[in-house]
Amino acid sequence: MKAPGEKGGPSRDRRQAEAGVRPKSRSGRHEGSAVPADGVEAGAEAIGGAGDRPPGKARSADSLDPALEPFHPVLARWFADSFGTPTDAQRSAWSSILGGAHTLLAAPTGSGKTLAALLPCLDRLLRAKEAAFSPDGAGAGRLAAAKPAPAAEADPGVDPTPRSASASESASAPGLAPASDSAPAAGSGKAASVWRPGVRVLYVTPLKALNNDIYDHVTEFVAQIAERMEQWSHQGVPGITCAVRTGDTPSSKRAAMLRRPPDVLVTTPESLFILLGSDKGRLMLQTAEQIIVDEIHDLAADKRGSHLSLTLERLEAWRGSPLQRIGLSATQKPMERVARFLGGWAPPKAFAAEESADLIDAGTAQADPPNGGNALAGIPDTANARAGLPDAGTAQTVLHDAANAQAGLPNAVNAQAVLHDAAPAPIGPLAEEASAQAEPLPAHPLGYVPRPVAIIESAMAKTMDVLVTMPGRVRLGGSRDSVWFPIMDRLLQLMEGCRSVLVFVNSRRMAERLCLRLNDYTGQEMCRAHHGSMDRGRRLEVERLLKEGRLRCIVATSSLELGIDVGHVDLVVQLDSPLSAAAGIQRIGRAGHGVGEASRGIILARQRGVLPEIAVLARMIAERDIDPIEVPRHALDVLSQQAVAIASLDTVPVEEMYRLILGSDSYRAFPRQRLLDMLAVLAGLYPFARPLLEWDREANAVGPRPNSRMAAVTGAGTIPQSGAYPVHHADSRSHVGELDEEFVQESRVGDVFQLGTSSWMISSISKDRVYVKETGNRFSEIPFWRNEAGSRSYRLGERVAQLWTELMERLEAADAASSEAPSASSFDAARVGAPAPADARDAAPTILAADAASHEAPSEMSFDAARVGAAPALPDGPESEPARPKPSASGDGAPLAPTNADESDAPFSAAEEAVIRDLQEPYRLDDRAARSLVSLVRAQRATGVVPTAARLAVEVYKDIAGQTHIVIHNAWGRRVNRTLQLAIERKFETSLPHRLYGNAKDNGIEFVLPEWDPSWLQAVRSVTPDNLRELLVEALPGSPLLAVAFRRIAETSLLLKRSFGRTPMWQLRLRGEELLRAALPYADRFPYLGEAMRECLRDYLDEPRLKELLGQMQEGRIAMAVHYRDLPSPLASQFAADYVNMRIYEGDGLDRAVQAQLLQMSRELAGELFGQEALRGAVDPQVLEAERRRLETPAAGAPGSADELYRLLKQRGDLTEAELLGAADADPSAAGWLRQLRQQRRVAGYEPGGGLAGRFICADEAELYGRFPQEDDAASFVVERWIAGRLAFTPEELAARYPALGADGARSLIPRLLEADRIQLAPFAEEDELLYTSALTAARVVRLSVQAARGRSEAADAVRWCRLLAGRQHALQGTQLQGEHGLLRVLEQLQGFFFPLSYWESFLLPSRLASYRPEELDLLCASGEVLWLGRQGDGEKEGKIAFFLPESRDLIASWLPQEDARPAHPQLLERLKRGGAMFLAPLARELGRQPSEVQAELLELVWQGQVSNDQFAPLRGPSSASRSRGSRSGRGAWGGSGLGRWFWTGSLRPPQDSGSHRPQAAASTGLAKRSAAEPSASTESGLPALRSGPSASNAHHGDGAAPAAGSLPQDGSPALRWIDRLLDVYGIVSRDLAAAMSPCAWDELLPALKRLEEWGVLVRGQLIEGVPAMQFTTREIAESLRQPLPGEEDGLTVLSAADPANPFGLLADWPGDGDGGFARKPGNFLVLEDGEWRFWVESNGRRIRSLGPKGEARDEAPAAASLQQALASIAARQGLAKIAVEQWNGRPVDETPAAEALRGLGAERDRHRFVLWKSQLSARR
What is a single molecular function from GO for this protein (predicted)? Predict the structure, then answer.
């Protein structure tokens, strides 16, 4: 909408010059139209100065256009001087509105809709003010006497005062006419009446920005009108006042508005709702007479329209008289449906009793017209001459629901009901009927009929000059920005010669990105962004700059779509698809906004894959063919909000509320029972839903509660609450915009981002806002915003499918023509992949795969994408999708569009050229776009996968990771495809052992499976119309759709509290989940849960449409063809980026298999691993006692009134009088309160039976207690409240409380409650005790106990942890073990952990055993008591070894390679598989090779994990991977590689695990993968069987490929065993430790860790000082850190830096600033003495640091004895003959105090170093 008075418009002289004769315009308007060239919506291009014309120079009265004669002369002159001749839409609308009819105006952008609706309203206002304030009552001047203005119908804003008047004046005086439901007529006020302040005209728009725009125009209008009133000597008549009320209006202006109400109020539906809910606001609105709803199509199509519809019914009921309704829009269809939405419904008697002549007389109490014809201001009484219309009839005026004309529509309006098919019917194969057929009237429960609404449909031709184009060829180069260059070039080409351009994009992220790119590309700020996350002031500044010509371009989202005036716009560019024809019309309509001007729009497609949709939309936009508007019906959440608002003001009978509700078209058939069910919830029937109103069931009326009004105000509207962070300037505190919550969580202080084309640096982040400062950094990050992505409608999808079908047929015909006449064009067609015959394609579709790839990928970049089965991702998809991976060529994810330039340049045959030419005109394609579209269809045809309107194409292919992709190609749109996806997934869940990935898009559905079985396609075919509803109902509870729908419904219905501030999204989700969980037992009777299901099926899904399509498939009208391919087709490649994105970003959630494993983790297994004593510490006794007291005390304290006593009864359930009074702390008033409740019949009696005393219940629960215990929902309702008030109960206690339930009933009810997770076995129950508690109570007790345990855990310094770990691992001095049994204990503790081969016998085992002997290790291996496995990852210099006990097969299986892994020597491995374990010599003889060769190959297999030996000796040889120092400590070791038998490690796999369910790894990776081995039913350790599974993160295991989805096993988890392993060795579990040492990913361990914490086994906290990461340990370890460690003064310990007992560099950071040369290397050592860190030794003593207790450096001379002992130990372990010390604390040793200590030890000085020989170290020992 563009209104008059905009700044920067044409001057008055220019307007006057153009008001005369001008040439024919592009739209076909002829000379003499007297409309300014820059065309104004209602003359919108500037009105400043028009009012300066002196009265003496006004035109004569006879020169006025006839359509202006009914208006007040001042208004008529003002309009004529400012805008010239009215438009056709204005003429027709004025006639209808002045006649008093409800009016719906449909007119194109730039046709003057605003003044078409507003001018009659201003006229009515002006006349009413004249009547009230003019001294003589004439008020209209002499011209008014000649042309008397029509009088008004009853005007509630004018209080008549007695005065002498003629009979005719008295008869038409306001207030005398009875109130009726017919629309009030326009007219004047009455002379000498008392003016009652208040709003007369409401102007409602859907956007705050549009409100401000309308307000600015209206303000300018009324200022000029007031000036003219003064010039025409109308002194004393106050001017018309105007105000705007939105959420941005300051409180001071709101208060001033209430004190002095404006005449015209511009507002939004939500602000109108809030005003109607306040006392002062209602008084201000009581005088309202007319309401204008602008952009009504935007409101009618969603819940905001339902909300507004009810508000209008409430407002009209409050006024007590009709409210004239006027609707405006450029895009609405069908108009009859929108007209019913606008007018609503009313009883026939409300307007049937009115005589037509009465309304005419009321509207025309003036002198008879000269010709005695039409009563409207003397207009000639001919149908086409009314209001000055041309004879040909240039407007279509339709009476809404002609069938209801019997209801008494006034003749004045009937005279306008002339039907004209002025709009030309769309032509072409895709066209539908020109106008929608009238819908049959639905039956109304109360017999209401629609209010008559006059439909005005302008026939003015608004030319939409639309063109579809594409960027040029991509210039591939070294720059990551190169793919943006063609888009920038094309945009600049399109802008050439344009002064102002609007570029529309589909996401805020793309708006910011495109601005950054354009400005950087041109080197100047030529454009700015405009979107809803920018501050309003900054948006207004951008609009002003464009109006003033100081800005050339705005890149906007839908924030500029709905009629906001930005001045003259030469061109609109839409980047990518506008998603709907209505949005395209609105956006392109911003250009050429003036009357009669053509709107120029360019749709720029970035990639050819979207061309089919864009082509269809371009045609629909040019033909103004839009999708029908679907008005939401019976939205329960909106009704709940309105019901609370109604009840908050006064007591209202339910029947009266029901009648009011049914007046809204959105609720015209709302069932009465649903209203009663809704009121029951809002009145507090269910304890978990807060009561919001009072319902007196005796009087059947609802009334206010103390919280009703506040709830209605804070929860106003239907827009979901956002978790976005407001952004404020750090210095000025001014609002800058807002950022997505997730983006803020991923940002840090100092990050730079772009918002509103400016760069901002984050200076601080608080809990509810972000503070920023401006910065000049041009390398700013582009924020992202999450949102639900738009999708195409099914109707649009049908047309896209028709286009595909048509193009396929045309290309087939072209191929046939080419084959009949061989020529160069025929050769060209063959080159680009002309298809084989249809039967050949279906039989062997993969033979054309190479050609398909060549067409889809003309450049190297796109070819690579096609070859790997994934197309490069676009930079900004729909906002619901996370940021996508960036292709190497595009860097930051630029669009791929330019790569198709090669395709459009490919040769075409003559017949194909004809197809290209035929496409261009009807579909508005330029040559490049048409060629790209044909090349896309041609490439798709070459694959044989050809979806059409009558054929589904199912494509099956495998990607490089071995995943099977099933793509169902269709054009049905996302809603239909999402419905089919859910149904198919539900079918798959019952037959697949794997997790299924599914993705529904507009163009089809993709499923990804780890394995493939053709029989699974039966799951796709088995979805039928008969089982569709059942499948969806089963699938929805497990999908996010239901949770999202329920949360939003609960917010809108006020069940979830809203606040004025920001609420984090996680809190909103948590509250919604809690309410959903509480409501589930009452699913059939809780209306909001059923509403959520209906909304999912109706709005998120499209069940009726899919059911129809499935029926067509059953009947054979839609076929299904399955194609097996090696590479994805062009259409299938569009899904690849989404799948890659999912694999990258899905790590935040748990795999279903992991969830299943977690559920199977039992307390018994935890008790066996960690000890039953640990489980008994789960609940803190103090917490338990505090919880007992809390449950015995009412939540809000003792009741202090009857209402509070009632609330207590509602929370606790049935109580005896003694129990009820006892809960009131024996307050003497409690008995009186109870009597009061009984007298009010708010409580009722309940007899439990069994001889027990009677109890009281809330009266509204009587029906539920009457069904107890027979029905499940009643049993849950009654029993659960009793359970919630107790700490615990037994089955016997439950049966005793409710004798009607009985012992058998209690025993059957408890399992049901357990299954529903309403109760749990009490965590504090004794062993084998059947003690239960509420699930919420159990969770609270555990949570508080966990918090108490965390509070008791204190962080210890890393040195103390080092001392603790060394002691636990027997590496501390004095804790070492001895002998063979000691060695077995050490290996058992370290089992499962891989360390380099050289570590084991150099320091790991010697440091833990008093006198380690290698032969003891060989004996353990030879006897079978110990096993070892090897592995060596890519890039590792040395192989690693881990030891295992044979019974720990679950640990072994975690590291075994997958059976399908490729061995380095398959022949050798196969021999070991077949022949079993063999010695080296026999094996070499059998193979006929040298033992040394075979040994080398065996060692290679060792490092692949495929082979092992029953002795350790073979690894000590020089040919092993530990070439550096593999046998340095091998004193007395059994040498020789011939010892021991070699065997295949797969024989260690548990026998059940055949590996048949494991997905095959891609052969191209060449990487060994770990097996998902199943354990045996039991193990030698006696532990329950565990199943090990591969990790979701394999990088640290040398496996570069992510595991297949669903590869985790479903029947057990190794998580507990690995947690036990980590705790046994390291005493702690953290993310970094798990990544380095465990085969389980952190995502697998974390749920188990949390569960163990809840059970009291573990405690979580910051356990190591300076390490903020989450850490877990046992309660015993946490407690021991607070006590003196045993043996803390046992002397000196030397620990290798690479030893697992050293926490530094693994669990904790190194001390100091990191410049001390600290590293986990074998030649570095920590020296501990008496529990403190004494020395840090590097490079076998070359550099030494003397450290303090916590690792700080100290310079004093070291203790000689300690130093000697430490160096002697190092020399012995490393086999060194001497130690040379060169540096001490980073300085030359001879310059430090340590030199004297070394001399005292007998060290020899060698230049700057001191040398200690082995004899010197041992001499003083």
Answer: ATP hydrolysis activity
